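Its record is quoted verbatim for completeness.
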Amino acid sequence: MWFYLVTLVGLYHLLRWYRERQVVSGLHDKYVFITGCDSGFGNLLARQLDRRGMRVLAACLTEKGAEQLRSKTSERLETVILDVTKTESISAATQWVKERVGDKGLWGLVNNAGVLQPFAYIEWYRPEDYMSIFQVNLIGLTQVTLSMLFLVKKARGRIVNVSSVLGRVALFGGFYSCSKYGVEAFSDVLRREIQAFGVKVSIIEPGSFKTRMTDVESSIEKVKKAWEAAPEHVKESYGQQFFDDFCSTTRRELMKCSTNLSLVTDCMEHALISAHPRTRYSAGWDARFLFIPLSYLPTSLVDYISAISRGKPAQAA
């Protein structure tokens, strides 16, 4: 019995490997629009696809970021300034893309722009802190998608949304995790609603990687600002020692972030060029062997694991 089971599993993975190696034709004529290209995953993906010969339309938040990207790529790559929190900026970018893709439509839309900080406990956030996280990570992503969806449908192309392993299991991360759960839900609903049009939607779920968002000093500084701005009764309930331990743990964990960003961009590229892209891609060893397995465990067990790994607040019961 075990022999047959192992054989079936082996055949399944062999077939999956063969299917996923098949690449769509005519990549040199296909346009891909990527948000958040100033740095990190978006910047690396833009350069990666440009080297492959695809027509990259890279959206940057700043002109400086756009100039730096253009200096490292071919003349094929074009840039546009985009603030995903502003409707007029999204509309202008959509018109800009429409003028370039013409009747071919937009083959790939990669929603990569995102923010993380402050990385704190939910009670420590101010409304302006968590609203900006939702505005960029979720609302901005949905608005860009819906604005450009007609161009993707014309090409029967791909939508690639960058979520996080914290969108699968909310161990920590405050409102960042909440926003990524929203990305997961939006992507699942969208995929099922538009699959009849030949459009494929993939979700990228990175683990911990060293990018501008996970810069150690910047992260700690913003956590301290969030703590200082928190109401006195909140700070009293947790205690200064708890906060100091949290900062030390955060610093230690951020220093462990992987520097190999290609683990993520390779997943993005596969979702764009494979004839049979996956629905979800888990990128990074921590994602594959820690967070994703945890997401399948009973909730009570995950709660227990989370509880024993955290410090104890000053006024804990």
